[in-house]
Amino acid sequence: MTHRMRLAPLCKALGLNKHRVEAWISKGMAPMSQDVVPGQARTLDARDGGVIAVVDQLLTLGVSGDTIKYLNLDKTLHLKAERSFLVIYIRETVDPNTGTVLGKAASSCILGESKIAGFLLGKAAVIVDLEAVHDRVSSVFEAQE
Questions:
Q1: Closest by CA position to 47, among listed 72, 29, 10, 74
Q2: How wide is the angle at C-alpha 89 spanned by C-alphas 86 and 95, nearest 5°?
Q3: Is residue 55 within 8 Å of residue 24, measured between CB atoms?
Q4: What whole-number distance in Å separates Cα of residue 47 and Cα of residue 49?
Q5: Confidence of residue 9 (pLDDT cuts 50, 70, 90)
Q6: I want to staple 86 with a disulfide (CB 3.0 to 4.6 A). Which of 15, 39, 102, 128 is the partner?
Q7: Half-sphere exposure of residue 115: CA atoms within 13 angstroms, side-chain side
Q8: What sign does the dihedral 36-40-46-50 (CA atoms) show?
Q9: Which neighbouring-strand residues pair with 84?
Q10: Rounded to whole angstroms, how far apart are CA atoms 27 and 90?
Q11: What is the pLDDT of residues 82-138, one digit of tens each?
């Protein structure tokens, strides 16, 4: 059975302001696994807690809310067997004929520890250690058991 908990105790355990997290959710920056049902309190699972913790880290690191929303964290966050990192970087679109940079956009990927150093060569990036996020959130849900 998946353990679920309400937003207020999760925010308290993570040291986050509940109203700030509600704003992230309503703005689409922290998509949750279940929609709110009118008349029922929102309950969250560990994946939701991970999304909230990652959004908090990204905002702390200076990533804009619009960029975070664009990343679709609910679809990209998953943990692998190897220690994994969420990497956000700027990707350039280049005209193959002229080599001219046509535009830049934020992009993200999840990389294992063995591949991250090679990927980052020559790139500026924001990196979130997903194992640390998992440990932080798991301890909150384990304490509820």
A1: 74
A2: 140
A3: yes
A4: 5
A5: very high
A6: 128
A7: 11
A8: positive
A9: 112
A10: 22
A11: 688 888 888 888 888 888 888 888 888 888 888 888 888 878 888 888 888 888 888
Distance (Å, rounded) from C-alpha 42 to C-alpha 6? 6
State which H helix or E strand residue 8 sits in: helix 7-14
- Cα 9 to chain center, whole Å? 20
Instruction: Give the pLDDT confidence of 51-89 residue by residue, as tens digits.
Output: 999 999 999 988 888 888 887 777 666 555 568 888 888
| In the block, residue with structure tokens 């999304």 | 51
8 neighbors 41 (Cβ within 8 angstroms): no
Locate 26 and state its tokens: 């309503």
For residue 100, the one-letter residue type is T
